[in-house]
Design a protein that fits this description.
The protein is of the alpha/beta class. It has 6 helices and 7 strands; from the N terminus they run βαβαβαβαβαβαβ.
């Protein structure tokens, strides 16, 4: 049975691990051809191996999304390899400046977070959109966070960058709504990974100190399912939307 994205070409940034890798695997399950981009070659090639082991067709592109030349080359390589770009998942980002009050956040940290998380998404869109305009079709999903919807203490740089992604998403959605290009964002809650609680590894079966009403962390796979839906034609009338995947955390 054909998937919801059969034959579509998708680009996933930050595809070497975590949410990006889960998104790539979910996309190929639905029949998409996937270009995996990551600044970490080893992680990216490992993820590509997983894609191919799952029966998918993919290519790895080493790229730093915060560098304009590399972002442009990444999109061009995807289009040259597969002939088009139908879906773009701008997921690459960094988790910096955590546990630091605003007045203690360094200028270096602020600039680094903004450069990768916000400028990186903008650069990706800057080069993805012309390709989609040429085709007359496209779906873009930007990875924000619940930190892009509410204030979180001691995370000012990260929260500002993720709020920026939501604003960028909404503005672009309006600009291209009449040209058959949809732009949406996904806002995950705390994803189950070691960085969430320092060096301690948590699993989704353990409590998370009451942060999420559902009593467990979000998973990369849960976020990936939301991304796949937004990329597919089943979400054909959805644009400018921020889809929250947080187990009820921001509903409190």
């Amino acid at each position: 049975m054909a998937g919801n994205l059969e034959g579509r070409v998708a680009l996933v940034t930050g595809g070497g691990a975590g949410i990006g890798r889960a998104v790539a695997l979910a996309l190929i399950r639905e029949g998409a051809l996937v270009a995996l981009a990551d600044v970490n070659r080893k992680a990216g090639e490992r993820a590509l191996s997983m894609v191919k082991s799952a029966g998918g067709d993919g290519v790895f592109i080493e790229a730093d999304v915060s560098d304009a030349a590399e972002a442009k080359k990444m999109v061009r390589t995807t289009a040259n390899t597969y002939g088009r770009l139908d879906c773009a998942v701008n997921n690459a980002g960094i988790f910096r400046g955590i546990n630091s009050p605003t007045h203690k956040c360094t200028e270096k940290t602020w600039d680094e977070v903004m450069r990768v998380n916000l400028k990186g998404v903008w650069l990706c869109m800057k080069y993805e959109l012309p390709q989609m305009l040429k085709q007359g079709y496209g779906a873009i999903v930007n990875m924000s966070s619940i930190a892009g919807l509410v204030g979180l203490e001691e995370m000012s740089a990260y929260a500002a960058s993720k709020h920026g992604i939501v604003g960028l998403t909404k503005s672009a959605a309006l600009e291209y709504a009449g040209q058959n290009i949809r732009v949406n964002a996904v806002c995950p809650g705390s994803v189950n990974r070691p960085t969430v609680r320092g060096d301690k590894v948590w699993t989704t079966e353990k409590p998370d100190d009451g942060l999420h009403p559902m009593g467990r962390f979000c998973t990369s796979e849960a976020v990936a399912e939301a991304v796949v839906w937004l990329c597919s034609d089943t979400a054909s009338f959805v644009t400018g939307h921020t889809l929250v995947v947080d187990g009820g955390r921001t509903a409190q």
